[in-house]
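Supplementary Methods, section 5.1.

A reviewer requested that the exact input to the structure prediction be made available. We therefore reproduce it here, unchanged from the version used in the analyses.
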Amino acid sequence: MRSGLSRLPEGVTVMVGHRVQLRVNAYEDEDLELTFPGDWEVVECRMLGHGRPPLTDEQIRSAIQSPIESPRLREIAKGKERVVILFDDPTKPTPTHRIVPFFLEELREGGIRDDQIRFVCGFGAHRALSTREFVTKLGADVVANYPVYNHNPYENVVYVGTTSRGTPMYINREVVSCDLRIAIGGIIPHRLAGFGAGGKIVLPGVAGIETIAAHHSRMVQEPYRETIGVGKVDGNHFRLDIEEGARLGGLQFKADCVINDRREVVGVCAGDVVAEHRAGVRLAREVYHTELVGDADVLVSNAYPDEHQVMRAFRLSPLCLKDGGDLVVVGWNREGQAVHYLNGRFGTEYGGRGWRSGRTSEALARVGSVFVLTPLLSMTERMEFGGNNVVWCRSWGEVIAKLAARHGPGTRAVVYPYAPIQLVTKRA
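The structure derived from this sequence is encoded token-by-token as follows.
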């Protein structure tokens, strides 16, 4: 077996062996064991924040009560009549229920009664949530005792202004009707905005479809295109437009989480929507940092904790995989892929206004074969991946049998156990 251990990066937890345990199916959180041939070199690349202990209740409370560039929430709440708390949908791994109680504490200290509070899910152009999903996100007590609403990007939106980059801001009517607008989110890497969270809970979160379409189309074109990318925040016009939109939408207080490998909250930044986000990004860079282990014959990219959008697990292949190497994407989600009214397919030859056919073929051009491991094989979802080199499998046994037929002794398999949140960088 080829020995690559001397070439592996320092300062990052790397495990070598032939059994790798993956966390899968976010929100239900199962374990899936991968077994590899004994004559392969198998490397598991963990982020620096792997195993980082979760915050205690008192630590979360302290973070909420120590806002960044903002008065305390209880001070902002004084004299307000109608309060809305925005939260994200299941495509984001935010443990929202861990933060909500401390928001409610602060609101009560500011004189807000429970009957003055409502929740709105800011899912942008994704689908509406079920009551069960509301409970998963917020907790059963919140759903039982407060109104919880789905956003509708097609109706009941109110114009509040236009950003300096030309995005017309239409915002959820319920949100606009409130005089205190606050939100909870989670910071993970994002291919356009650099990192998620911050003002994204407003744009696209509770924005109208015209706003979302204008922002997404304009901000990825010249002269803005070169400023966007995973991990890019400073000078990123996609994000700057989002933040201007959030100001126009009147967002007054935001709390964002950083998570560990088990979706536990390991950091909270709260306060002004831009200032808290920048502080959260600094922590996220530390927690999610994963030094690049490349030169892989086989790359296993686990889509946890964002299996609703497995495309986000594809982004590591150009960095880590040899030309012609094989990519395995683990998308162990029994509910399938997220509905996206802007970019999704809704007919044989058409979709939302941002949809185009075969959108993954270019990204996979240098890959030998792509094996997608999922318990749910939907023809419609398979059509969206495009390419003749995509193989869909229901079990790891099926995947490894196909790989073993293509790769012999000394094969280097590199495993990224939670690819969507791993911020992979090369050593200087």
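Residues 1-6 have pLDDT under 50 and may be disordered. These observations are discussed further in the main text.
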